[in-house]
Amino acid sequence: MRFVSLFLAVAISHGQTGRDPDSVLERARVRLREAARSLDQYVCIETVNRSYYQRAVPRDTPPAGQPACSQTAAPSGSGQLEATDRVRLEVTVSHGSELHSWPGATRFDSRDVDELIRDGPVSTGAFGGYLSSVFDHPGVTFHYIGERSSDGKTLFEYGYSVPLAASHFAVKTDAAWSNTAYEGEFRIDPQSLELERLTIRTHEVPSNAAFCDASATLNYQRVHIGNNDVLLPRQSQLEIVLNSGKETRNVTTFTSCREYQAESEISFDGAAATETAAAQSGGRGRVVLPIGLTVTLALTTPIDTETAAAGDAVAASVVKAVRRPGSAEELVPAGAVVKGRIRRVEHHLFPKPYFLIALAFNRVEVQGAVSFFVVRHEPDPALVDALGVNLEVRDTGIWFWGIGTFLFPTNKSHTVIPAGFESKWFTLATGGR
To answer: Is the preceding peptide bond at 138 cis, omega within 30 degrees of 0?
Structure first.
């Protein structure tokens, strides 16, 4: 009787709307496939706000040696907030895969996104991967769930299942990228055939993955770019349960979208993106700095943790002329401008509240010639110990060392490093590059 009653209720609902769910789905899929395939024409700024939570220890905590995931529930959205951070990239699609670069860079990088974002959990797919994986693959299965009301509109809700072979769901935390089959629901406006919402839940996560479970919710809208209205997520929220028992929440937004320009490039050389400006100088009048010189820098613009993100451009001016030891030779004059990127913007709440800002400079301009510029700033060791700061990152090589880390203890919800803020750095050898 329950089956018959449900069947009759659905049949009456179909008659009231005058729309057949199967027909709506097929026509919507055609539009969504076109939308997914058109995304390689566009570039957007992708901003990811990440929150880190310590989940409450369950009563049935597994014995020592037993995998944490065996007792870990799905993302709960609760727990004690320990820290937040923010990263920002540019994103586009090429041959069905998302490509990323730092904002304002002249070329996209073919490396995985975690090669740019070295710390914290990152994911791909929100910009266009999910659209392609769900609606443009013959292996995906669908079923109609029913009608839902949202903002005064009647929407059709469907369930779907994406097998591993069709999956673009890739999440990376501290281990390798792991693709997994997934499932979820989506809502379609039967009148306009527009996708309103898409939810995603992982299924059968590989045992060697660094996360136990993940789920995402994407809310879509049309964005006017050039002469076209492009379907893009208004916001994407990804929740990940790590096998450490912690939980993270990534909230991603897309802004400043534009048409992809033909003069943009794709870089297949990991160092090329950071060295483009120096290479353009043709080596004319380049400065080669020996290791160990002290350089005092002053920020040219403030850094506000309310809006700043890893990936943002940063610039500073040289306060005092840099000279070779025991020589009057001026290697870098006072007033020369050095440029680079913010590498980390983090707000830690426990065990003591503080902000961590990391900067990396990679070039200096002297009389129109651009030179490599690699320097390091060390935080106060006593402050590091007092705050319980973990300075470990996954970077290696000179680009790991060429970072300045700054710590700002405060109980306030945000802080500002003012323009003119001075700091002392020391040079690293660049002559061999």
So the answer is: no
Express each pLDDT in 18-28 by its tens digit: 579 999 999 99
Task: Give tens-digit pLDDT for 312-324.
Answer: 999 999 999 999 8
200 C-beta neighbours (distance < 10 Å), count: 25
Tell me phi and psi for residue 343, to 5 degrees.
-105, -30
* 302: CATH: 2.40.128
Compute the distance between CA of residue 130 and CA of residue 253 in angstroms, rounded to an integer.
15
Model pLDDT for residues 356-378, shown as the tens digit of each residue: 999 999 999 988 889 999 999 99
Domain shared by 298 and 257, yes or no: no
- Asked if 91 and 236 touch (Cβ cutoff 8 Å), the reply is no
All residues at 6 or more sequence positions from 153 whose CB lies less than 8 Å from its CB, including other chains: 189, 191
Q: Are strands 170-172 and 122-124 parallel, antiparallel or unpaired?
A: antiparallel
Domain annotation covers residue 415: yes
Full domain range(s) for residue 380: 280-427
Cα dihedral 368, 374, 379, 384, rounded to 10, equals 140
Report yes or no: 395 and 118 within 8 Å, Cβ to Cβ: yes
